[in-house]
Specification:
- By secondary structure, the protein is α/β, with parallel strands linked by helices.
- The chain has four domains: about 1-130, Rossmann fold (3-Layer(aba) Sandwich); about 170-295, Alpha-Beta Plaits (2-Layer Sandwich), CATH 3.30.70.270; about 300-410; about 415-519, Homeodomain-like (Arc Repressor Mutant, subunit A), CATH 1.10.10.
- Helices cover about 60% and strands about 10% of the residues.
- It is built from 24 helices and ten strands.
- Strands 2-1-3-4-5 form a five-stranded parallel sheet, with helices on both faces. Strands 7-8-6-9-10 form a five-stranded mixed sheet, sandwiched between helices.
- Helix 1 links the parallel strand 1 (about 1-5) and strand 2.
- The longest helix has about 45 residues, at about 110-155.
- The two termini are about 55 Å apart.
């Protein structure tokens, strides 16, 4: 409902306005009725009002003075003045103020009702126009950022990008800002609370970047933003260090920033972007809560980070199937690498990294590492107490085997045969993008019942499971170098390539083009 404020120093007139107009029928709400302009101003300063109806002649502060000051507080406010015949000079000034309506006393309530209906229509139309303008502006910003993201990711080339956006010739390098350990350190928060905290930090980044004129930023994941900057990396580092220090001292979270090298020309900015991503991946070895330059890493270190992620992915996929030998083999591979570096801090970083990745994996099964295994992710100092690499390996093996047993038992539930049949049907029809309604019809159940059975068994909604399977299939198809990415997207039921790229990256941490390059 639109909100109305009534003002008249005559109590009888004020009561008439309140009682004789069918406010509810007009879909209007009288939030206050006051007998002085000063009381009205106090209300206007504290809450939004859509329509002000005021007597024009009042003691000390007239309705005209109230109208002028009210418009300063709420520029979109609609004002209706009520006054007597003898107030012609007031009426003239009211017209000069461009008030919405002027009603004479004694008030003809039918006339006032018509005025209110007209005003309500005007307000709704103006609100619709403002919302449309806001949507268009937001859409334009989103399109610009999406095209920039697609170009830096290698999904489109420089010429295609320049058709949509202006790529500034002064841009020199790319940085990526990543919030560390969101799931760990905010594990006790709800998903909504975590999202709000992350959003606040991202907003803080964006405001600081805009205020300092450090360049142009855009969101690439829910906990990562990219910064395209006209500054040289060394010049930019001091400014970004301010962000690292500020986040460290303001709460439980920290950030790590990767800075790419200078791009000699605009066309080379995607190279700087890839270097920034590689620098971020090295926090596994170099630590977090800091700035990492791409020049700090060696090619072998980047390759190691990529290889370790592949081993982790294979190990976690074996968990729900209770493939203990496979899990142990992959863990041996990980710890063999740790043994080769002969650096205790790096071994600790790797163990913490494995635990954090395990927690993220368990989220897909609506579990978390604290409730499942009793691990407090805020305090993993137990890892520092182990004297040998074998101790750490034994501890990790026990934790992984525990998780595998729990996930496997979760799968062995009633209705498992039905769920297996549904999973096979989905597997055979991924390209068709089947819905829950389609599957329910195929198996002769209601969508609600089948959806509940599926969720109880798998821990995932039907929609989430479909997304997971389609993207897993897409990842398998990526191994075929003759297939285009858009062809793969189409084969797994995605008509929108941008949406496919986003979902793929959300699940696997890499864009399709990045994943293919690393495979």
């Amino acid at each position: 409902m639109l909100k109305v404020l009534l003002v008249d120093d005559e109590k009888l007139d004020l009561s008439g306005l309140r009682q004789l107009i069918p406010w509810n029928d007009l879909d209007l709400e009288v939030v206050h009725a006051v007998n002085s302009a000063f009381a009205a101003l106090e209300i206007l300063s504290q809450q939004h009002i859509d329509i002000l109806i005021s007597d024009i002649r009042m003691p000390i502060m007239t309705g005209l003075e109230l109208g002028i000051r009210a418009k300063e507080l709420i520029p979109t406010l609609k004002i209706v003045f009520i006054s007597g015949y003898e107030d012609f000079q007031y009426a003239k000034k009211a017209i000069e103020m461009e008030v919405s309506a002027y009603v004479l006393k004694p008030v003809d309530y039918q006339e006032l009702i018509q005025v209110l209906v007209s005003l309500k229509d005007t307000i709704v139309e103006e609100l619709t126009q403002r919302q449309l303008i806001n949507r268009v502006e937001a859409s334009a910003i989103y399109v610009k950022q999406e095209v920039l993201f697609q170009w830096l990711e290698g999904a489109i080339d420089f010429v295609e990008a320049e058709r949509v956006i202006t790529i500034q010739p002064g841009w020199k390098c790319i940085s990526i800002l990543e919030i560390d350990d969101v799931l760990w350190k905010l594990g006790e928060k709800s998903d909504l609370e975590r999202a709000e905290i992350v959003s606040d930090i991202i907003s803080y980044f964006e405001k600081e970047i805009e205020k300092g004129k450090w360049g142009e930023s855009f969101l690439i994941e829910n906990h990562r933003i990219a910064l395209v900057s006209p500054m040289f990396p060394n010049e930019l580092e001091g400014k970004l260090q301010h962000l690292v220090d500020a986040i460290r001292t303001s709460g439980p979270l920290s950030i790590t920033i990767g800075i790419g090298r200078i791009a000699n020309k605009c066309e080379d900015l995607p190279i700087s972007y890839q270097q920034a991503k590689e620098a971020i991946s090295l926090k596994m070895f170099l630590g977090k809560d800091r700035i990492i330059h791409s020049s700090e890493h060696k090619v072998s270190m980047v390759q190691n980070a990529q290889d370790l992620n592949k081993i982790l992915e294979a190990m976690f996929q074996a968990l729900p199937h209770y493939e203990l030998v496979h899990i142990d083999d992959r863990l041996n591979e990980l710890l063999s690498f740790a043994a080769s570096v002969q650096n205790k801090q790096m071994v600790y970083n790797l163990a913490v990294f494995i635990i954090s990745k395990l927690d993220a994996f368990l989220k897909d099964y609506h579990e978390d590492i604290q409730s499942l295994l009793g691990l407090d992710l805020k305090n993993l100092d137990i890892l520092l107490k182990f004297e040998t690499l074998y101790d750490i390996q034994s501890w990790l093996r026990r934790r992984l085997f525990e998780a595998a047993e729990i996930l496997y038992n979760k799968k062995m539930k009633p209705n498992r045969k039905l769920v297996i049949a549904i999973e096979k049907y989905i597997e055979d029809n991924l390209a068709a993008n089947v819905s829950l309604k389609d599957v329910a019809s195929q198996f002769g159940y209601s969508p609600n019942y089948l959806g509940k059975v599926f969720k109880d068994d798998s821990g995932l909604t039907f929609s989430d499971y479909m997304t997971q399977k389609r993207l897993q299939r897409a990842k398998e198809l990526m191994q075929n170098p003759t297939m285009k990415i858009y062809e793969i997207a189409d084969l797994v039921g995605y008509n929108n390539r941008t949406f496919f790229n986003r979902q793929f990256k959300d699940m696997f941490g890499l864009s399709p083009s990045d994943y293919r390059r690393q495979s």
